[in-house]
Amino acid sequence: MDLTSFITSFTTSFVIFIVLVLLFTWLSRKPGNSVVYYPNPISRGLDPFENRKRSMNPVGWIREAFVASEADVIAASGVDAAVYLVFLSTVLGILVFSGVLLLPALLPVAGTDDALKLANQNSKTAGNYSELEKLAMGNVQEKSTRLWAFMLGVYWVSIVTYYILWRSYKHVSNLRATAKSSPEPKPEDFAILVRDVPSRPSDQSLKDRVDSYFRRLHPDTFYRSMVVTNLKKVNKIYNNIEGYKKKLAHAEAVFAESKTTGNPEGARPTMRTGLLGLVGSKVDTINHCNEKIKELILKLEAEQKITLQDKQERAALVFFNNRAAAASAAQTILAQMVDTWMVSEAPEPRAVIWPNLSMRLYMRQIRQAIVYTLVFLTVVFYMIPIAFISAFTTLDNLEKLAPFLKKVVEQPEIKTVLEAYLPQIVLIVFLALLPAFLMFLSKSEGIPSESHAVRAAAGKYFYFIVFNVFLGVTISGTLWSSLKRIINHPGDLITLLATSLPGNATFFLTFVALKFFVGYGLELSRLVPLIIFHLKKKFLCKTEEEIKEAWAPGDLGFATRVPSDMLIVTIVLCYSVIAPLIIPFGAIYFGLGWLVAKNQVLRVYVPSYESNGRMWPHMHTRILAALIIYQITMVGFMIIKKFVYAPFLFLLIPISFVYAAITKNRFYKSFAATPLEVAARELKEVPNMEAIYAAYIPPCLKTEKLEDVELFEDAQSHATSRTTSF
């Protein structure tokens, strides 16, 4: 990409961002749009404009984001949101402190050399180099003493990363400890998850077996147990009832509205009973829904009894009357045979993946092996379409693949637009399809909680982007045009890498700029959710519940957001010395990202679960992995440049692994399990154990007849001592 295309892309992206910010400022001040731009405070029963004026200042949201404290973020969206902001500020700090030294030192060193000019004079080398590429390490000649500056730059980036990561890990550890020792009781702090319960004797229910086992081990602190059941059928009936209730409320609202249109008696809504309401006999909607609800409630009650008594699985949630006892029990090996009575901390009630709790150990291991194999195949063979996409980065390659497009792409205006936007947009769309697939695979492993599944999916995505995006895009542009040469002369691959790595920095510069300007602009303006909300409200929504569902924003979306950010971390770190000009773009991405994300967690997103910062060790490890990849890349690049002191860079790789081991030993254990000194801190009030127990009863089992905790226990244990019947 030449300088003109880069400036066109950057300027256009910036203009789009400014337009989107102005739209956000204007639209967010309109009262009818409050539920789109301020759903978080509204969902908490707060007035989003309390003590604030409806200002038209386009930078007012930036001031408010800076003023808001970390405690405000935690109060609005929880510790997980605060930890995500720590992640963004950590990477921003790494890039700012690295760039302070690297930019003034390395840009003049690279820009005043002439390796690219000499390379162009070689008849065996084809290609034109832009002004941007002359500011990269590729413009430094082989064996040059100038390479000392770049080698010292690698050390500087590594030292800065070590220092800032250590401070951030310590800060997040304190945040987690504060949350876990909160004086407010939380259900998950009083429960543990028990899996692989041994089969029960014929004269004892599984519930009674679990109770007797834990009552013997923890006679003073054991409270109750809840055996996991197969919820597939009862949950289906429950969802059908909820669906008919929504249809009934909608139909009643339509009927009431019809009475105000000149017909006092109104027009009763009708529906068809067949597929999607398009076929079948026509019936009165209100009467039909009432009949189906009554019918299904009877089925639900019968199925609940069968589920609780006859569909018990070999897993349970065990509750203790104080959280220190629960924390201690979750860290204990209970049985001599370690593949039975396996315990861990209970997931938060909102985050439980019920079908996975009862999965046996051997099945989890088999599934994990299958999933890892599928992930490996996905990572490796996704290179093929990525290589095809990367061909678009060079229009010459596109002309070779599709000669009939030659006349079109040679038009100056079309060529500039294609070079500026097409490769980046296609790559972003292509990558957006993958996270959902990886989330499905992660849940298939038997992971017990949503938060754990998100971490697992994000880890898989990280390995994918490193192999396919960083390596694939960087290398395949060269491989595509030089495949014949590589087949005939495999040794030339090293030479091609030496010239292609700096050259591809311009692609990633545009990629990063497009993501932070257009991506964050769309995130802030919320144009798509705004349009969808108003369309639904006008044409589909008739009840308050339907309107609430239409504006519900969802959570921050760590499963897709964190991997996308990790891609930028990997790219910017790996190119920070090779092409230092990428550092300001990375800093803008994470700086602007911090501002936009803070605005969104305070005003927009509503957390669907809380893991108290459990994602941080994953973030920390992946940043270190990106650093190690960067160090290995620089070792290879220095060797290609024939720099005799390149072996000094080898020292950084074991240092990084030692640093990773030290940080893991120092901090990780307090994330994997709750320290007893944290769990033992005093509560503000005596916990309501019945409420804690009831928080884990699945919605499909939580009906009026099961509101009493003791009734629920009776149904699971087949108890006959109590006189109250199910």
UniProtKB/TrEMBL annotation:
It comes from the Eukaryota. Keywords: Ion channel, Ion transport, Membrane, Transmembrane, Transmembrane helix, Transport. GO terms for molecular function: calcium-activated cation channel activity. The chain crosses the membrane at residues 6-27, 82-107, 147-166, 369-392, 421-441, 461-481, 493-518, 567-596, 616-637, 644-662. It is found in: Membrane. Residues 189-356 form the CSC1/OSCA1-like cytosolic domain. InterPro entries: Csc1-like, CSC1/OSCA1-like_7TM, CSC1/OSCA1-like_cyt, CSC1/OSCA1-like_N. Residues 5-167 form the CSC1/OSCA1-like N-terminal transmembrane domain. It holds the Pfam family RSN1_7TM. Residues 367-637 form the CSC1/OSCA1-like 7TM region domain. GO terms for cellular component: plasma membrane. It is a multi-pass membrane protein. PANTHER family: CSC1-LIKE PROTEIN ERD4, PROBABLE MEMBRANE PROTEIN DUF221-RELATED. Belongs to the CSC1 (TC 1.A.17) family. This is ERD (Early-responsive to dehydration stress) family protein. The lineage of its organism: Eukaryota, Viridiplantae, Streptophyta, Embryophyta, Tracheophyta.
